[in-house]
Amino acid sequence: MFGTPYLKHTCAAAALLAALAASSAQAAGPKVVSGPSAEAQCFVPWTQATKFFQYAKKPGPYRVALANGFIGNTWRIQMIKTAKAYAEQPDVKKQLKEFKVVSTGDDIAAQISAVNNFIDSGYDAVIVDAQNPTAFRSVVKRAQAAGVVLVAFDNTLDTDEAINVNVDQEGLGQYWGDWLVKKLPKGGDILEVRGVPGTSVDTDRHKGLQETLKASGKAFNTVEVVGRWDDGTAQKVSADAIAVHKHFDGMTAQGGSTGMVRAFLDAGAPLVPAGAETENGFRKLCLDDAGKGLSCASGGTGPAQVAVAIKTALAALGGTVVPQSIRLPLAHVEDPDFKAGDNVFPDQTDNFFVGNSFPTCGINFTAQEIMGRSEANQ
Fold it and tell me: Which of 376, 356, 368, 320 is nearest to 40 (CA)?
């Protein structure tokens, strides 16, 4: 009825719509596929029920961004330096057209805005250490719609629609709790130095610690202070707690471990069993003051987990099958196994976090590689 020209235009329009639909479907996110991944020793699924993702393969080199939030402690600073060091390694650098780093502070909205800007600017992958685990759901959907690989690490996302890379943070709290239970079989008063409020790491580590202490059946009482994973802050709030409560039988810190112990030393308070992070300064004190009553368990994961997150993103962009949730191993040591030059480094800064290698992923950094970098946005 409308003649041949209309039919031609109709067919052309239909073809265009079909192409757009196909493009949209391809950019709608990863396919859920069967595992294992090609690098099964590195990309270890969180559980046997963890699903596997496969993104459509993209040609490189890639534009990759790191959207960090909080930067007010040495772990985050070292993490950013490590990310930059990893991006400069020859095998990684050749895969990158651009590597961008921003830190937005405690403002969740600012971090979300930064991630959205990277998506809108056509970046191929965005790595995020999230300020809040539940606030990124709309971002995840936008990333999937744009075909952008989104990888969260350390403080991960409360979703199974983006890739998460992490250690068992709750298990780390359990590890510290087990040490205190072992050292204090009758229970006692514990100083707990917590991290940044609202983050998944703080919540999970606290939960693991408290559930372990409770499950022991012993009479443990905990005084909680907020150290924000920062030595200076942890030292101040620990000193305040000692001044008020006078006596503790044990102590634990999610970060700022060196500052916590120094508060006891400065106050002349008895040194007590400590379960805390992997700061080099903390381990130095554990080694030097073991004869004064300081018995330690030091566990955590170095900031090099950011390198595993970048490696995961690059693998996903290349079409490699990866788990949706990747479990990293913990690095830990306890008395009497602290050894200078092996797991404690007297010639390195107190602020250096030990445990910056993931051999199963081919990742291993020296202090010199990391500390020579800048933590500034780039």
Answer: 320
Answer yes or no: is pLDDT of 244 > 60.
yes
Give the integer Cα–Cα distance in Å for 138 and 116: 10
Strands (E), the chain: 31-33, 52-54, 62-68, 96-103, 125-129, 149-153, 163-166, 187-194, 219-226, 250-253, 274-276, 296-300, 322-323, 325-327, 331-334, 357-358, 363-364
Q: What is the pLDDT of residue 28?
A: 67
Return the pLDDT at 348. Answer: 87
- Determine the 3-state secondary structure of 72 from DSSP: coil
* Residue 332, beta-bridge partner list: 299
Q: What is the pTM of this model?
A: 0.84
- The DSSP output letter for 121 is T
CATH architecture, range 169-300: 3-Layer(aba) Sandwich (3.40)
- Residue range(s) in the chain whose domain bears CATH number 3.40.50.2300: 28-167+303-328, 169-300
Architecture (CATH level 2) of domain 28-167+303-328: 3-Layer(aba) Sandwich (3.40)
> What is the rounded distance in angstroms from the CA atom of residue 351 to the CA atom of residue 228?
15
The Cα-based distances of 335 to 1, 192, 214, 299 in angstroms read: 89, 20, 24, 12
The per-residue pLDDT for 288 is 94
A 10 A CB-CB count for 238 gives: 28
CA separation for the pair 205, 131 (Å, rounded): 15
- Tabulate helix, strand, coil % of the chain (nearest 5): 40, 20, 40
